Amino acid sequence: MEQELARIGVSLPENLLDRFDEIITKRGYSSRSEGIRDAIRGYIRYYSWMSEVEGERVGTISLVYDHSQRGLVNSLLDIEHDFSEIIRSSLHVHISHDTCMEVLLVRGEGHDVRKVTEKLMTLKGVKHVKLTTIVPGEDI
Ligand code: NI
Which of 14, 34, 93, 101 minimizes the number of CB atoms within 10 Å of its CB? Predict the structure, then answer.
């Protein structure tokens, strides 16, 4: 049986919508709605994967952010200090006048790795956060 559809209204920056439209055209989606449904499914899958990160982990958290966003740099530093036991190293690259990229090398309990990632994701001005992890000592 077909699921009932709910309609939502979303406000987006124009350039973000333009980029999204470009991608869905290239990928051959029949409509913007289909592209958005797929993007939401991907988002849900990623969060489900993240919620299963537990036990000892080694990994990276990469983030891209707008350093001109008021208060953001201080919030980031506070988080990095709060989690200094699991953030073992970090790299910072200035991508453009306002945009920075950081890669944090993390090692610790999966629950904590997840917690720091989630905190970073919710900060205003952070445009991208990606966590990758491996289980140390596991043959792959
Ligand atoms: Ni920078």
Answer: 14
Separation of CA 3 and ligand 1 centre (Å)? 46
- The CATH fold of domain 14-50: Arc Repressor Mutant (1.10.1220)
Quote the tokens at residue 34: 């289909």
Ligand 1 center from residue 98 Cα (angstroms) = 7
What's the pTM? 0.77
pLDDT for position 1? 59
Task: Report CA(132)–ligand 1 centroid distance (Å).
Answer: 22
What's the confidence (pLDDT) of residue 140? 64
Asked if pLDDT for residue 138 goes beyond 80, the answer is no
Ligand 1 centroid, distance to 105 Cα (angstroms): 17
CA of 138 to the centre of ligand 1 (A): 35
Q: How many CA atoms lie within 13 A of 4 on its CB side?
A: 1
pLDDT digits (tens, 9 = 90+) for 50-72: 888 889 999 999 999 999 999 99
Q: Contact at 8 Å (CB) between 89 and 105?
A: yes
* Ligand 1 midpoint to CA 110 (Å): 28
How far apart are alpha carbons 64 and 130 in whole angstroms? 9
